[in-house]
Design brief:
The structure holds two protein chains of two kinds. Chain A contains one helix and five strands, in the order ββαβββ. Chain A is mostly beta strands. Chain A has a single domain, classed as Ubiquitin-like (UB roll) (Roll). In chain A, β3 and β4 form a beta hairpin. In chain B, α1 runs parallel beside α22. Chain B starts with a strand and ends in a 6-residue tail after the last helix. The mean pLDDT of chain B is 98. The chains are: A mainly beta, B alpha+beta. At the A-B interface, β4 and β5 of A face α7, α8, α10 and α18 of B.
């Protein structure tokens, strides 16, 4: 299945060819979860504080679905 | 420490002893207390009976990290209620080190005369300086620093404040003299203009030597608090790396970024105007991705963004980047920087100014996303043209002038950078805050989106009232300490955080407060503000969001704001 992925606030540095904040398409095994996605992207799990799927926070253990929009963030704040 | 009282009717300055009941108050607790005690809530905000109060926080001017916040209090010309506008920069540290606990400006001079107040450790003086009239804040700071010293703090108003426009802010400056640190919200620049004060110059021998009762104990607590801040991932790593505008992408991803005047929750060009892009471009052009707005700040969330013509806008904050960007469908950081710079120079609050430009676009005065036209329209404010004066009076006034019903304001003040349908906890704060729509008054985005201090699902109505209540109380305390509100990220996650703040206060003032006692400062402050607002004519009906948030759904989540009115009425049950 294909996912739409964005890496923010410095996490793009782990992903070959990724541009900060810009989306890229990624093919993963059907039924993959967040852990498997991060593993395939070479992004260390401990660096990811917010894992967002279609605009909602989601547990890494939960399965992903075709076409999901994924955002990965370290711990950030502002305001 | 002294209280300085400046009577602009008699042009007379008095030094007063700090009354017992004010000794252990600072910042917002002190400005709101003085306004509640001395200002008739029904007075005309730009008339002679309103007062303008400046107070450093309890810890400002000491070695406490990130403690340089200034509170400016008054009756707001924008909301008609009490206001505390809170600014960074060096003014609070200078005031505290000049021995000033609070400055109260009252009365009104003969029209058309402009004055500069100078304050230092030896006293105060007032001079008529009409040649500064009409000048932008950058030029005012430059001129006054040339005369009084390059390290002085300058508080000033731009032409917007002189014209007494309801979106006029009070400018303060950073070490470098950028007049960009604003007590922006609520139109307090118009009050300063009504008092005939163009600028206040503050000098002091130090930034960090305000009186402390037990210095050794204080230093130990301040050191511990520094490590609490630098040890938290947000205040220790995230804020110094990308600044506040790192929020642009996460709020857009969460579907809570108000885009095209609150029509949708995601902006397809969020990344082009977000913190990552800003940091990269700023550094490429020789600017700074991280910068402290006052000496001793360990979070350094500010930045310095050189525009294409070489002029520097320092900083561009998230809220400004949003209001002048996605809210207007503007996707060009250079345009956002230019608009931000104009706000700083003319003397406008950026959130309200961007909010108003969005309303002007909704009205069809200029096209959506047209940055050049937005610059032209905003420049009208400084010229004082009829159109400029409409825009300079803010979003509600502009909406009325052009028949726009969709204006995202509460109590007359425009919302900041989070849609209350995509993050409902912040909607509770917008609706009920004593300040009008104000994110800082109870920053529920922490638990709604950032997962700091726990997690409350942003799209559910449950839990939002309690979240907002607790944050509003804690914030009223933090705003009284002079600590930057961004210490809250660490306070919410680290159980040692608040006790260490209380320890610093105890060591400085020789007190024996516990955390509950300190939080009472926050509760008492909110009660005084609510009481003032009630006497000014505010009712439950004012603690509501504009009706379109109840009926219009927000893409991508399709939510409305559905926290029941009866629950909003329980926020201040404490």
């Amino acid at each position: 299945m294909r996912l739409e992925v964005r890496a923010f606030a410095g996490l793009h540095r782990y992903i070959a060819g990724a541009v900060p904040g810009e989306s890229f398409s990624l093919e993963v095994r059907d039924g993959s979860n967040g852990y498997e996605l991060l593993h395939s992207l070479n992004v260390p799990v401990k660096e990811v504080f917010t894992f967002m799927v279609n605009g909602r926070r989601q547990d890494l253990a939960q399965s992903l679905a075709e076409g999901d929009r994924i955002g990965i963030f370290p711990s950030i704040g502002g305001g | 420490m002294r209280i300085v009282r400046l009577d602009m009717t008699k042009l007379e300055i008095k030094q007063e002893e700090v009354p017992e009941q004010y000794r252990f108050l600072g910042g917002r607790a002190l400005t709101s207390r003085i306004v509640a005690d001395e200002v008739d809530p029904t007075c005309n905000p730009i008339g002679p009976y309103n007062k303008l109060v400046f107070a450093p926080g309890l810890l400002s001017g000491t070695g406490a990290p990130s403690s340089g916040r200034l509170s400016v209090g008054s009756k707001s010309p924008l909301t008609g209620g009490i206001k505390e506008a809170n600014a960074g920069g060096i003014s609070a540290q200078r005031l505290a080190n000049a021995g000033v606990k609070a400055l109260i400006i009252e009365g009104a001079p003969a029209p058309g005369k402009w004055y500069v107040l100078r304050i230092d450790q030896d006293g105060e003086s007032l001079t008529e300086e009409n040649e500064l009239a009409g000048k932008g804040t950058y030029e005012v700071v430059q001129a006054l620093r040339a005369k009084h010293g390059e390290k002085t703090a300058i508080i000033s108003i731009g032409p917007a404040g002189e014209m007494k426009l309801t979106n006029a802010g009070v400018s303060t400056c950073d070490v470098e003299g950028n007049s960009s640190r604003y007590a922006g919200r609520g139109g307090l620049g118009a009050v300063m203009g009504a008092k005939g004060i163009k600028a206040i110059v503050i000098d002091s021998p130090s930034y960090i030597n305000a009186p402390v009762a037990d210095l050794e104990r204080f230093r130990a607590a301040a050191k511990k608090f520094t490590s609490i801040l630098t040890g938290h991932p947000v205040s220790g790593e995230g804020l110094p790396a990308f600044g506040t505008n790192v929020l642009m992408n996460v709020i857009s991803e969460a579907g809570a970024l108000p885009t095209r005047n609150f029509s949708r929750g995601r902006f397809e060009y969020a990344n082009a105007v977000g913190g990552e892009t800003l940091a990269e471009v700023a550094v490429q052009r020789g600017g700074l991705a991280t910068h402290a707005c006052h000496p001793g700040c360990v979070m350094r969330c500010s930045n310095s963004y050189p525009m294409p013509d070489g002029t520097v806008c320092s900083p561009i904050e998230y809220e400004s980047a949003w209001s002048l960007g996605p809210h207007c469908e503007i996707k060009d950081l250079d345009i956002i920087a230019k608009l931000n710079y104009i706000c700083n120079d003319v003397g406008l609050d950026t959130i309200e100014a961007g909010g108003t430009l969005g309303v002007a676009m909704e009205a069809g005065i200029i096209p959506w996303g047209d940055g050049e036209k937005a610059v032209e329209l905003l420049e009208e404010v400084g010229k004082g043209s009829p159109m400029g004066r409409i825009i300079g009076n803010g979003s509600v006034f502009t909406g009325q002038a052009f028949g726009v019903s969709k204006v995202a304001a509460v109590k007359g003040q425009h919302m900041p950078a989070y849609d209350p349908r995509g993050a409902k906890g912040i909607g509770v704060t917008y609706a009920t805050s004593t300040m009008g729509a104000d994110h800082t008054a109870g920053y529920s985005i922490t638990a709604n989106v950032l997962k700091v201090g726990g997690f409350v699902d942003p799209l559910k109505k449950e839990g939002q009232v309690e979240l907002s209540r607790n944050l509003q109380i804690a914030t009223a305390l933090v705003d009284s300490t002079g600590l930057c509100l961004f210490v809250a990220f660490a306070l919410l996650d680290n159980p040692d955080g608040l006790p260490t703040v209380v320890e610093m206060i105890n060591a400085q003032y020789g007190l024996a407060l516990d955390v509950a006692g300190a939080l009472d400062i926050g509760k008492d402050t909110l009660r005084a503000e609510r009481d003032f607002n009630a006497k000014a004519g505010f009712t439950k009906a004012h603690d509501r969001l504009p009706e379109f948030f109840k009926y219009e759904t927000l893409p991508p989540h399709g939510e409305v704001f559905d926290v029941p009115d009866e629950e909003l009425d329980t926020v201040f049950n404490f």
